Amino acid sequence: MEESLKINALEQPYCSERDSAPAQWEPEHVGKRLVKAFITLDRLPRLRGPREPGGHWPRHAVEWADQLAQAELDESERRTREQASNRTTIRPTGAEIAQMEMAFDWLRELRAEDSGMALVTSLWALRTARGRSVKALCAEKKWAPHTFYRKRAKALSHLANWLNARSVPVF
Question: Distance of CA 107 to CAs 35, 114, 126, 133, Å?
Answer without folding.
Answer: 12, 10, 12, 21
